[in-house]
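Hey, sorry to bother you again with one of my protein questions. A protein chain has come my way and I'm curious about its shape. It would help a lot if you went through both lines with me. I owe you a coffee for this, so here goes:
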Amino acid sequence: MSTTQSPEKKPKKVFIEGAISSEFIAESIAKHQTKTSIGAHNIFLGQVRNDIIDGKEVKAIEYTAYAEMAEKEIHRIREEAFEKFDLVCMHIYHSLNMVRTGEVCLFVFVSSAHRDASYNASRFIVEELKAKAPIFGKEIFEDDTHIWKVNK
C-alpha cells in the first residue's frame, strides 16, 4: 500500500472500511524509522466534525465512491505530486462507509528529505483529492436524516 523511492505505475488501494484507526496511523509512522534518507514527514488527518446544519448536529458521514475511478484519479494525483515535489514516500488512505464524528476519515502521509517538499506536497494532495476524486459523503444527523456533503 505504499510507494518508496519512486511511485509504482499501478494504482494503489486507498480505501479503508470505516474509520482509520490510531493504531493504523501509528504503525504507518513506525515503519518509517528505518528509512534514514527521510528528514521530514507531513501528516494530514481529516476528521469528521459535528457540524450543526439547519439546527441539527452531524453524528457521522457515510462515504461512498466510484472506487475504481477514484483510485485512478488518486494515482494520477500521486504521480503528479512525485513529479512536482522531491518526495521519498507517500501514503494516501480514505474511509468508505460510516465514520462517526471525532473519527479519522482521511490519512495523507508524505515523506521527503526536507520539510518544504513534505509541507507543499501534503497541501497539494489534499486539495487535489477534495477537488477531483469522486468520493462522496452523506452527512447523517442525530435524527437519522441526511444531506450530501459539499467539500470545502
The first helix runs from residue 22 to 30.
